[in-house]
Amino acid sequence: MSFILRPSSRAILCSTQIIKRQAHKKANIQVKLNQFVEGVGLQGEVVTVRPGLMRNILYPAGKATYIVKQQQNEAIDNTVADEAEKNAANLEHLAQIELKKKELLGHLEGVRQLEFNRAVVPNSDHTFGSVTAEDLMSKLREEFGLDVDKSTIEVKSEGGRIKSLGKHQVFVQIGQETAEINVVVHPVV
């Protein structure tokens, strides 16, 4: 980049105008790599590089070859085909995940009630120990064989814990759907 000082005829005072010039940058070109080049790509890949890198480093060392326009179109077609295969695999994977979510949701619908025993504070219905999302997660795993992430369990009470005796509602969020489970806390006898 260079600067040019030119006198300005518009100003009343004698001032100079600074003009910034930039060198013309050539467009990137696509080349095929003959071997692995660190920071550029793997052997056999078609990559886009600056023409100076190709002319001064890659081509003289035999690390890359220029691509003829017809080969360039074929390379683009191959790349599009590879991406289509990857997208199909991703869609299949997402379908499997969705199926597992629906299966888990169906099993959770079958779980109507979980029971816990806690020590009670004398003359009240409050418990010494609370029922947390971790307790619910371990109970679902032990009794029903269901693996549920504790972040998907939502307890509708203060602090996300059940701290009193009785029946409470807990919601488990699986994807866009929600399963409702009743939790009953009994006093320890």
Automatic annotation (TrEMBL):
Q: Does the keyword Ribosomal protein apply?
A: yes
Q: Which UniProt keywords apply?
A: Ribonucleoprotein, Ribosomal protein, RNA-binding, rRNA-binding
The record's PANTHER family line, in alphabetical order, gives: 50S RIBOSOMAL PROTEIN L9
Q: Where is the Large ribosomal subunit protein bL9 C-terminal domain?
A: 103-186
Q: Name one GO biological process term.
A: translation
Q: Name one GO molecular function term.
A: structural constituent of ribosome
Pfam family, any one: Ribosomal_L9_N
Q: Which domain of life is it from?
A: Eukaryota
Which residues does the UniProt record annotate as the domain Ribosomal protein L9? 29-73
Q: Which family does it belong to?
A: Belongs to the bacterial ribosomal protein bL9 family.
rRNA-binding listed as a keyword: yes
Q: Name one GO cellular component term.
A: ribonucleoprotein complex
Per the UniProt record, the source organism is Mucor plumbeus
Question: Know the name of this protein?
Answer: 50S ribosomal protein L9, chloroplastic
Q: Which Gene3D superfamilies match?
A: Ribosomal protein L9, C-terminal domain (3.10.430.100), Ribosomal protein L9, N-terminal domain (3.40.5.10)
Which InterPro entries does the annotation name? Answer: Ribosomal_bL9 (IPR000244), Ribosomal_bL9/RNase_H1_N (IPR009027), Ribosomal_bL9_bac/chp (IPR020594), Ribosomal_bL9_C (IPR020069), Ribosomal_bL9_C_sf (IPR036791), Ribosomal_bL9_N (IPR020070), Ribosomal_bL9_N_sf (IPR036935)
